Amino acid sequence: MTEDPVYFADQPIAGDPLARDTTLDALSDILHTVRLRGDRLIRCAPPAPFSIGLPGGIRLLHIAERGDLELRVGDRSYTLRDGDMALLARGDPHVISVGTPSVPARGLTAADSVRRVTELADPAAPRWVTGTFGVEEAIADPLLSVLPPVVLIRAGGDDRDWLTPSLHLLVVEITDARPGAAVMISRILDLLFIHALRAWSADDTTAPGWLTAALDPALGPVLTRIHNNPDRAWPIAELAAEAAMSRSTFTDRFTRLLGQSPGAYVTDRRLEHAARLLGSTAEPVGRIAGAVGYHSEAAFNRAFHRRFGMPPLRWRKRGHPKTAP
To answer: Is 170:185 a contact under the CB 8 Å cutoff?
Structure first.
């Protein structure tokens, strides 16, 4: 029997592969641009005492499942109690330990991982889960650099009702891996990352940066318009009107919260959107240049090279673009 397409939740999308999804808010678009994706998950329960060093360059989170864990990043130390989560979105090197600090740090090994508590000699021993994230590094580095080395989320705090069930779901997927477990774990890790960003942005000590501005009541809608229309020149006066501010007040606030001028921000978003299109489509470079507001392919090539350190075609060859429809 043939069904009318209106009865299906997800209908085929026809049209231009370079067309923007104008339903995305600024934060969603940025996370989509950096190609954030939850990757691997392990459950760790080394015999105490231990001191385990994790190298830099791995963006990850830890959630304490049982027992007090000591997390050291640089010269700072944090205690993770049952249910607490630490997001290390920048990928700083760090050490997780339990017991005497005189134990020399070592690397994490396969013997430190466990699937079921019944496998442990001591079911009450300290344990935690670690989830890693993949990103498009060249784009993510400047965007995620605004975050602190550690975003610490305490279990049971205000607006933290998402943390405990998320940990439970992750443990279930590790304990009894069922079909679709990898996708389930990836989605849960993505949600935890976003929840942590929201919690961090609500802190009064939050530093200037894209996240601070994306969640600002006045600037958030402005950023959303910029992200959804990267081909526009965006006059300052029009953006200021969107924020219901004078031009000078808007420029000052934008620069203070973003750390760069509105014009520089628009240019960066255009080029990041172009990088995404180069990696996800097989459209010609000239057409992508036009889709992000460049009337000259040569000007686009120069701007792209300044931003990413390589020309567009070399950027594309780094990945495996999809075939154009």
So the answer is: yes
